[in-house]
Structures are given as C-alpha cells and as structure tokens.
Amino acid sequence: MNIEQVGIVGAGQMGAGIAQVCAAADLQVILFDLNHEALERGITAISSSLKRLVSKDKLSQAELEATLKKVSLSTDLSDLSQADIVIEAASENEQIKQNIFRQLDEVCKPTAILATNTSSISITRLAAVTSRPGQVIGMHFMNPVPMMTLVEVIRALQTDDEIFRAVSKLAKQVGKTPVDVKDAPGFVANRILLPMINEGVFCLHEGLASAEEIDIVMKLGMSHPMGPLALADLIGLDTCLSIMEVLYNSFKDPKYRPCPLLVQMVDAGYLGRKSGRGFYHYE
User: Fold this and answer.
1) Does the N terminus or the C terminus of the chain have fewer Cβ atoms within 10 A?
2) What's residue 283's pLDDT?
3) Which listed residue (140, 168, 198, 242) is catalytic?
C-alpha cells in the first residue's frame, strides 16, 4: 500500500505534532478540527516547533516553508475523503472516538486505513463500529511527537496483516520506531507509565513530599528526564485520569484506582500546561 495523503482528526497537541512529522516526511496532510480557532492554534504550534528547529540549525528556512505548505486545514470532514490513512487524535473518550470512526467510515474511500492515536482505549471496539474492521489500527505516538521516536502499532483483533505492515512502514517513513503491541488496556507504554504517575499523585496527596520534591526524587534517583507530576501536567491531567479509569474499569484491580487528588484537580479544571495550572503554575 502506498500512503501519500494523511488525514488527521484533531488539531490539539498530539494532532498538530503528528501533522508536523508527516508533512516533514513529504506527505500531504489535511488537518481537521471542528472549529477554525483550534486549527489556527494547531498550525501556530507546528510553525513554532519548526522555528525552534531552525534556530537550532536542525532545519533550514526553506524546509520550514516546504513543510508548512504540505499542511492544509479543514473544518469539513468530507475533505478527508481521498486520504490514504486518517489518524484520529481526538479526546481520550471512547464514545467520542466511536462517533468519529462511524463518520470516517462513511466519508473515507473504501481503501483508506482508519487509525487511532488512543493511548488506552480498545482498538477492537473502535474497529467494530465500522464496516472495515480489518483496516482499523492503533498508531500511538508519544508526546511531544516531533521529539519522541516511539510509535506503538496496535492491531485490533480484526486488523489485516497488510494494514499492520503499511502502518509500520509509515511510522518509519516519518522518522519513528514502530513497536508491535497487542490490544490491551493501556497497551504497554501507559500500562507502565500511568500507574507510576498515579503513585506520584498519591505521594503528594498523602503529604509525603511537595510536587517539586517528588519530581526531584525521580529525576535524581532514577535518572528520569522529567518527574511524574511535571509529566502529568504535560500530558494533561484529564487524559491521565481517563487512562487510569480505563485501566481500573478494564482490570477491576484496585491498584489502578485513580488518586482522589487527581480526580479533584480535573474537577477543578486544573488540567496542567494546557489550562495554565496543574501540579505547577504556568503562564
């Protein structure tokens, strides 16, 4: 399968990052979101990321301009009708994702691959709402997308081998390392990462140390580049909570119980960097 045009649903942090790496790999990209404001924020984020690369002499100005020209913006889902693959990067909510997949199944050409960047939700259940379950797959990029080289490629129970090979090839084309992961709650990355973050929140909740001190322990003691609470702010506390709820509800194991402080902070709208406040304050 030859992939030349990529559709992306969702112009947030992940969608914009995926759009950037695909455009930089000389693929035509259509970035879709429900409103123009979200699209403008997305293309601004892409431009800012590329400018940082130029300032570090990792990209030329001509390459920056060529990459931006590869990205077109749309608020009309039917504009994705000729995409060879559509990567969904919407909110980490199963109902929202299922609705998107139903719509994509109707508007996309019959040969199109439907991929999801979900970090925890069952690919098999998403595939089941379409008429092309064999062409549905998980493509879990890491955040921030331009910097992180891993992509978990997750086959639904229904996914055809040809689709898996095509998506793995695409991941390599955009400069990533694909890893074959089975469809299970949280996959591998978040099955390990999110319980660690949740334990960090419990440590704060129980008053064992301050947020800064908890992060210092993990950075200096375990050589982590970023502490768990700062990382939660980067990911988004609402996303962290959603993943923990998927793990808890799927396994029925109390070790995955979301920390009450995490729940309370999401209820308060303290979502991390994107809201200006999480475990830390941001301008």
Assistant:
1) C
2) 79
3) 140
276 Ramachandran zone, left/alpha/beta (phi>0; psi -120 to 50) = left
Query: Is residue 37 among the annotated active site residues?
Result: no
CB atoms inside a 10 Å sphere around CB 162? 12
Which amino acid does the sequence have at 28? Q
Per the residue annotation, which of 117, 120, 122, 190 is the catalytic one? 190
228-235 vs 211-222: helix crossing angle, rounded to 10: 110
Catalytic annotation on 190? Answer: yes
pTM for this prediction: 0.91
pLDDT score, position 103: 98
Contacts 24+ apart (CB under 8 A), 57-64: 63/24
Q: Which of the following is catalytic: 49, 119, 122, 198?
A: 119
User: Is 152 designated active site?
Assistant: yes
CB 178 within 8 A of CB 171: yes
Give the active site residue among 152, 168, 198, 242: 152
Question: Quick one: DSSP state of residue 21?
Answer: H
pLDDT, position 1: 80
Question: Residue 143 catalytic?
Answer: no
Q: What is the pLDDT of residues 69-128, one digit of tens each?
A: 999 999 999 999 999 999 999 999 999 999 999 999 999 999 999 999 999 999 999 999
Amino acid at site 166: A
